[in-house]
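Backbone geometry:

***
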Amino acid sequence: MRDALAWAVAEVSNIEIDSINILNASFKAMHLALDQLSIRPQFLLIDGNRFKPYSNIPFQCVIKGDGAYLSIAAASVLAKNYRDDLMSKLSEQYPGYGWHTNVGYPTEEHREGIRMLGITPYHRKSFQLLPSQLELFK
């Protein structure tokens, strides 16, 4: 962040993710972050294989771009740190889901939290929160 010419992080709510799906929510979050930049980019490098054009700025999608471009890697680190901080705060507000360590991924601890406590206002309801059939024997 110290050496960047400009940077921004944006998020889309779980409710909107449920409404427009995770891929479109990712595009929207990228657009919202771009809206916040103090410098208008002349070209966008996108990590992945798809992107919705933004404000007539040319772009290139790069699969595994975080391993090829330092700017994509830096953006990935910013996003992951933001997410980890958010999940840590949510873990304090909603203990029992293991968000401080699993950062929202559906680990067994997280699923057990859902089984025991139900869902929170932050869970995405369009995702499969629990397996459709629990194993009878382990």
